[in-house]
Fold these 2 entries.
Entry 1:
Amino acid sequence: MGVKKRLAFIAHASPFNADQMGDYLGKLTPKVMLSVARMLSKKKFGLSLLEMEEESRAELLKKLSDREVAQIISSLKSDDATDLFHSLEKTRTKRIMKLLSEKKLEEIRPLLRFEEETAGGLMQSEFVSVKASDTVSEAIEKIRECKEAEEIHNVFVLNSKKELVGVVPLRKLVTAKPSEKISRVMNRSVISVKSTLDQEQVAKKFKEYDLVSMPVVDSKNKMVGLITVDDVIDVLEEEATEDIYRLAGVPEEESVFSSPSFSIKKRLPWLTINLFTALLASASIAFFENTLAAMATLAIFLPIVAGMGGNAGTQTLAIMVRGLALGEIRVEEYKKALKKELFVGLANGIITGLIVVLIVLLWRNTLVIGIILLLAMVINLLVAAAAGTLVPLFLKWKKIDPALASTIIITTFTDVFGFMAFLGIATVFLRLGWLG
Amino acid sequence: MGVKKRLAFIAHASPFNADQMGDYLGKLTPKVMLSVARMLSKKKFGLSLLEMEEESRAELLKKLSDREVAQIISSLKSDDATDLFHSLEKTRTKRIMKLLSEKKLEEIRPLLRFEEETAGGLMQSEFVSVKASDTVSEAIEKIRECKEAEEIHNVFVLNSKKELVGVVPLRKLVTAKPSEKISRVMNRSVISVKSTLDQEQVAKKFKEYDLVSMPVVDSKNKMVGLITVDDVIDVLEEEATEDIYRLAGVPEEESVFSSPSFSIKKRLPWLTINLFTALLASASIAFFENTLAAMATLAIFLPIVAGMGGNAGTQTLAIMVRGLALGEIRVEEYKKALKKELFVGLANGIITGLIVVLIVLLWRNTLVIGIILLLAMVINLLVAAAAGTLVPLFLKWKKIDPALASTIIITTFTDVFGFMAFLGIATVFLRLGWLG
């Protein structure tokens, strides 16, 4: 089978969904990528584009004519079309809008107004609505007319002002008498969200109520769109990636095979911040330069106090950040959380500190340095508990993502306090003649 | 309103779902918890129990009679009932099984065989199945008979051997003629999973194909259960929590308000491992004790090389672990990934190293130490790139969770190599008379 044929085969192979196709395309050279992509149906092309990495997508879009992009956008559902619009360059958006049909524009235009990370940014404008006075068979007729019927699970009941007054799950329509009025089969308590709600909150609601789709309303309770559970799954993955990346000091947009120049540029800011926090740690050691000159051996033990504090702080931080994301803790509960973490830090500081006393006694034949380490470790694990608890809760309170309290910030606290505690106590011991 | 009345109100307030109720119960004192929980319907009680933390759940279950537990289990769907069974003590399981009806036992028993974290462990045994020779109206009749109809989105078509041969989405049933044969409306390409498949893979399949439910088959393609998207959302959250926790060295079971004794016990093992890795770093400094004795000032700069390496390694690690979880990279691509990361490490090492040269020149008025730092940082950022890339990929290859390559492991590499590189080069420079 020749290359071209093989590519055509891959492009049409039905088990290859958009997700896999996006990954696959991103790994091809730009030229081959373009020729494979053009073999796809416009819809599959569009969905694959959305699944690709930002960088490859931008590259591929640049190579397509405005006409092609317009055709792709026309083939997509309104929410996907809007997402693709958002990834176009501003100057191009207007040119492409002129190439779209009036109907498509009507669907997309209202969606473009919403922030990408809100309910409005997630929703599609296609949904099936009926009136309470309609009959079941009239509702079924509406479903039949709807092209996107594939993904219909609920029919929404609107009044004359387009306000949401009820919902009818499909299985109720299936089992109801055709002549029955919708008002008699509909469920009046509908769980909906405002279009401005943050996507993380939307996901929480889906999770709490085990939903497969949820209507979105505007400030006047007028139904404006529908969010489906597949979009929510994407949100959950996005938010988890964001948290993991932020905790590790990685800009969220990066992935394994982003281009090196992209990765260098993106990681450099955090590394530079880390450089300055490391200098802060250095300065706290420099403060005790005389002590170190008097007893260079002390330098050997610097990583222990700092490392243990950094590790304990990271543990606390991860638990707080995840607890905030999952709604296990509210900011007002900071006292309760702090009390617990301080207690845990104290206990683990004493236990691991005693192990250190023993090891240092065996390794270097000194009890005094072991005791200094024990004291410094207890202090530093308390600092770690306080920083790991309070920094993310403080950020949350200030409406900043708590995951930005990344490991870098917490380890700055534990480095500085760890070195100060250890060298400070050692200095006092030296002056008292207990050491050396 | 008295306490009792208020509690009763809260217990029945409809906006309070099981998720919230579980959280709420976990925060009460054991005695109040029990009295509030008993006000709930058995089903809501059961669902709330499942949403509670392990610790509180065990405590509450202990206080309930076998009879109560059996009633609660009887009120739940098979997958939830099985989950509750799994959280009972072994000795109690048998006693409670005797109290269940024959029908309930039949539903639950096959599910108890499956590992909790597989498709079989996620699925419920309730689903609606029809024969290809049935008519649409016969299928609708079956849905009407099904008690759990709330969550039906698809009807599955089985042959005489109970093998899965097709699927009919509800909207097809809605819009088809009642007299039509199922064989004419069914979709023959059904996406299903084997009962032994890992839950992470199950979630991936839901995501790729935008599903709301998926049938589970045994090794002979016989349909044995159904997984619904709400269970998949729980899996995604679980897996994300697990990754975040493992990267930070936290045992996965812990949450913000686990009891202090539980937290101390759970975190201690990782802290102890960290203690020994920190001692390894100390030993690598001790190796250069003479150099430090000759020039104690060098100790000041120890945190910079180690810290920068640790941070760069953490960035790479997070990207690899997430990339593996999301399927962005396969183990075989290790060369490509390593090449990229080494290049990024080299570039960022040189850039941040040059910044350090400048700062040290201004701060301590020495160019030589700056140059040593630059060289050591470049070496250490290369070590960080290699460890951050290869350790998680190696674990994945060995079928171990790559997130277990937690920050602790990576920073051990960067600490040891960072100290060795910096003090090693300084020792050479000292001997050559270039330093001090």
Note: Residues 129-229 of chain A form a domain with the CBS-domain fold (CATH 3.10.580.10).
Entry 2:
Amino acid sequence: MIKSLQDFLYSHIPLTKEMRLELVSFNESTLTAKAPLLPNINDKGSAFGGSSSALMIISAWSLIKLCCDTHQINADIVIHENHTQWQKPLYDDLFLEANFTEKYNFKAVKHRIEKNKHFRVQCEIKLVDVDANIYSTMTAYYVIIPKKEESL
Amino acid sequence: MIKSLQDFLYSHIPLTKEMRLELVSFNESTLTAKAPLLPNINDKGSAFGGSSSALMIISAWSLIKLCCDTHQINADIVIHENHTQWQKPLYDDLFLEANFTEKYNFKAVKHRIEKNKHFRVQCEIKLVDVDANIYSTMTAYYVIIPKKEESL
């Protein structure tokens, strides 16, 4: 399931491939992912803030997408708002951990989407190193929207 | 000056090259930049939120960097915090406009950096289309930090 989403990301969101994002694990409350430093490095030899931001954004998006897929929810997921703090520079590979800030009932979400209504979810994403030390934290809001039509 | 910074970005922050970021104009209060949709596209055919976030982050960073260069300020610039709102999807090339939220006196900044103190600046960045319609807005805080040592 993770592998198939990663293939989808690589073919539909080319930047995820350039960043060498790798989805690692998923359960209904958490998704973890990682990316090597080199394609995401900055002029100071640490992780580029733009890369870490993009990786955090797509990690939470992937968490929501896999929850929707699990419950056969046919919806688009779009980011609406986020807030990020960078505590210190990360001079090593990037690890991401995306969580929901509360437990969402995806059966209820499915019901709502089938009634052509959207649903807003809140996630918290951490940028950590291999030892789980925290370098950056993001709070992000996404909207799950009924698909208007199938893509061609 | 812009061309030389763009070369610097391409060689030191590889993601800027993958996103095909192009710095367009600079004066001491505003920097504009652009990037084509294709390398920054998402699964819905619109601009990937991670790309737009990264492009907004590097646009304001470039504004500050060029102001520092203009005033011979030898400093690192790091992002500390940001807040972004995405109003609507952009199905076309991305244009960025980065501004300071107030007028900073970079002569005073230089004095401060030379005394080995850091300086925090606030920027507002807009993601717009070719006709200047707004799709996303970011408020971001950066810290200008005295360089500890020259890079090798």
Note: The longest strand of chain B covers residues 134-146.
